[in-house]
Fold:
Amino acid sequence: MKTGSSEALNTSNDFDEYRISQMPETRFFEQYDELSAPEKTAVIYPILTQTAYAWGGIHDFYLGRCDTCSEVKIEEYYDPIFSVGAKSFRVLEFLGYSVIDDIDIDKNPEILNNYDSIVLLHNEFVTENEFLAITSHPNVIFMYPGALNSKVKINYEKETMILQRGPSFPDPDTINGFDWKYDNSNISNNTICEEWKFYKIENGHMLNCTPEDIIQNNDKILKELKRLAEF
Structure:
């Protein structure tokens, strides 16, 4: 009887771990009210970064795997993957954060005026319109290092994006496509986040690590995110 109970308990725990790994937002059902999005707060979905990291995308161009991939077709649908901050996106969408994306901002930069606070995921590839809109907003929370790193242009007739400037392109000495002083791509590999913290920059706060592997088990980050968004 004890053995059976133990096996049942283990099976239940295994299922919970699997469920959370596949649907990280379910971890926060009971904390929804505590963690839910403040009013007038939006998360920006990185559809351009998703496109860049797709097979045959600009990321492959950066890695020297594809000489012709500096211009790529923009993906039509959200397909959250690790490289865009998929788990955080699922959690924040579940918690009621409004969702807009790169193209929304490129077409209408003033859309950010509708929100008191903006949350970025791994929005690595952005247009100049988007970069200017984000860096001039008064309260932006950067959840992932490496945001605003590469400058792209959108060709709306062809529905493509073209790499204009980024790390080592077209100049090998280039570090950031916008020469942005707050580029923190150098800490992107810190995925353990043992000593995570948000640090202040001119128009918001940045997290000092990549939270993708821990976000589904870390309500403290979400509490701090909400506090910063309610400034």
About this structure: The two ends are 54 Å apart (CA to CA). Helices lie at 2-22, 32-35, 47-52, 58-62, 86-94, 102-107, 128-135, 219-229. The first helix runs from residue 2 to 22. The beta strands are 41-45, 71-73, 98-101, 117-120, 125-126, 140-142, 150-155, 160-165, 198-201, 204-207.
